[in-house]
């Protein structure tokens, strides 16, 4: 009954006229091979007749009568060619749209910005450092030598350690061609990029309203006084919590001391 109801909906026939589809359904069941009969159709086993093909019966386009299709090789070949042509015509707009999209992608790649360096050249690499807890600092370090060009990245080599790493082209900038002379001064410059600074003294402090945090003026060992920098207590509590607490206790400022003590304790609890 479900099949008959589906046929009525498909061909827009009133459900009271479902009996018109009984011969079609009956013929389909009798000529369809089933696993329970050894993949044979009922008409073969009970009548000894060859089963008909699915094209033996059909309903015409006007849905007026059931017509019988003769089994002619020429007709089947013609129907098959028409079916293939119809499928190709159906997929043709999608194929054309796909080809047009491919051409647009190629045009976009044509005008994309290409790297101005190649294998053997020397480049600078951008590095993102956490200068403050709420700000990122982008610096250029290097130079590095480009040793390999991949599809989406370049392999660069450190001048001192020889370490190689893959870097996206957008993070590299041309520095010099392959004729660059690696002098001792350049080597010292590269080695100083990974230098860790040691705190000499903590000098002054101030309240930063924008950050809602205190900042401390730090003097660094080995650097001039003009290179002193203001560092937030949020950062200093991670590196020098004891020295920061001692500095706050010596300033006779209870608000500053409470702020530093709370920050250091919060850091200790998180550990």
TrEMBL record:
Enumerate the SUPFAM superfamilies for this protein.
Answer: Chromo domain-like
Q: Sorted alphabetically, which PROSITE patterns does this protein's record hold?
A: CHROMO_2
Domain Chromo, by residue range, is 197-247
Protein name, as recorded: Chromo domain-containing protein
**Which organism encodes this protein?**
Phytophthora rubi
